[in-house]
Amino acid sequence: MEEEKKAEKRDNKNDQIIWSWGAGTEGQLGTNKLQDELLPQLIHQPSLSSVSHLACGGAHVIALTSGGKVVSWGRGNSGQLGQGEVVNNSLYPKIVTSLDAYFITHVSAGWSYSAFVSDNGCLFTCGDGSFGQLGHGDYTSHCTPFEVSFFANQHVVQVACGMRHSLVLLKDGSQNQVYGFGSGKRGQLGVSKYKIKSINLPEVVRAFEYAEIVQIAANGDHSAALSADGHLYTWGRGFKGFEDVHSPQRLNSSLNFSKATLGWNHALALTGEGEVYMLGGNHLGVLSDHQSMNRAKQIPVDSREANLEKVPGLDGIKISDIATGSEHSVIVTDNGEIKTWGWGEHGQLGLGDTSDQISPITVNCGHDLNEATSIRVYCGSGFTFALTMA
Amino acid sequence: MSYDDVEIEDMEWNQELQAYTYPCPCGDLFQITKEDLKLGEEIARCPSCSLYITVIYNIEDFLQDSHNPIQPSKQQSLSVA
């Protein structure tokens, strides 16, 4: 108890607070417990006192500190924690010491693997490599981050990890900005118009000759990219009712998007004006309706804008951040509220029960988040993190 | 309602669980044993939640040779269809 108070004081001193909720039986919530949490839990971890970004995977978390260090916890049975050993699960956040020589600027967590980008543009991957998703030219798994030599002479700025595939964004890449590797069966690599089972070395996604890509995203068998002029491109598994696409398709919309996140059957896109739109999902990011999906499988790709819906019930409130789990969605409003909807069976909505929700509901953190200058949200498959700075 | 239809070749053989597995959106794994497949069972369940998937497979592949179980193929080379 005394310990907890001290930790809280320290957190407050650093003006940063971390909450987590949802599926927790692999230790992924950072609560030092192996159990689900239906309500937001305040995280007391000294090693997480200066987190600048979180990446949440199937059941593990990679945290990036403002000093460029990497901390990981949760499920580790494929080596995805990068701690040099295969562990069933790690309850306590631990520093990934093998990256100590680097200043890490970007991290991503896939289903059972992880990727790290350093300030000098190097890419490192670890975890499950069975589908070539580590990009090392083989199907080997690694429990220590290993540099992807393919990019040795290039400057990587972002990486995005899905269920079994990875995307990489290069700095000043012009025509060769985005690369894909790993499983490609649903078209998620975007490297060929033909069906590719898997590739274990990066190949370029040839679709961005005339666009400057500023953000990439991957989750499930979906891929997405956002251009500097606000266009959203998606490829891979078709969203509800639509066929798979094997090369990036620009969403036919006049909206100016600033951030996109993917689930396993839906996507959220935030506009520069603070409006949030959803692609796929059965109305609101709840589990897809499989029967109607089968019925509607032949809807041609070019009518996809009809599938884009504005998230209702927000009454014009501006949204400042978005995140998507496999089957749930989380948004942050301009007035400091966190709202969730979608699948709730493991408490991933943080509303105190296991119910699903079809429209955004406000999460009660027990703190007035209005005081926070910044609230950011992150989702793993069935769990959620919120990071606030005062 | 089935969460998804998954082909057996997209599932992974898990030695520890002695079952074919596929990621469940809750973070755990959908699982089905060879014995289940031989009986014609096509539902793979997740031990942690209410979801299940429908496994698409050919039962003959599992009845033919019980001593040499078929592993889901993980092709090492690029295959173009």
Automatic annotation (TrEMBL), chain A:
Family annotation (Pfam families): WD40_RLD
Domain RCC1-like: 18-386
Keywords tagged on the record: Repeat
SUPFAM superfamilies: RCC1/BLIP-II
One GO biological process term: intein-mediated protein splicing
Segments annotated as RCC repeats: 16-67, 68-120, 121-172, 176-229, 230-273, 274-335, 336-390
Name under which the protein is recorded: RCC1-like domain-containing protein
Organism, as annotated: Lupinus luteus
From TrEMBL, chain B:
Domain DPH-type MB: 2-58
Catalytic activity: 2 [3Fe-4S](0)-[protein] + 2 Fe(2+)-[Dph3] + NADH = 2 [4Fe-4S](1+)-[protein] + 2 [Dph3] + NAD(+) + H(+); [3Fe-4S](1+)-[protein] + Fe(2+)-[Dph3] = [3Fe-4S](0)-[protein] + Fe(3+)-[Dph3]
GO molecular function: metal ion binding
Matches recorded under SUPFAM superfamilies: CSL zinc finger (SSF144217)
Keyword Iron in record: yes
GO cellular component: cytosol
Gene3D superfamilies in UniProt: DPH Zinc finger
GO biological process: protein histidyl modification to diphthamide
Coiled coil: none
Pathway(s) served: Protein modification; peptidyl-diphthamide biosynthesis
Keyword Transferase: no
Keyword set, alphabetical order: Iron, Metal-binding
Family per record: Belongs to the DPH3 family.
Protein name per its UniProtKB record: Diphthamide biosynthesis protein 3
Lineage: Eukaryota, Viridiplantae, Streptophyta, Embryophyta, Tracheophyta
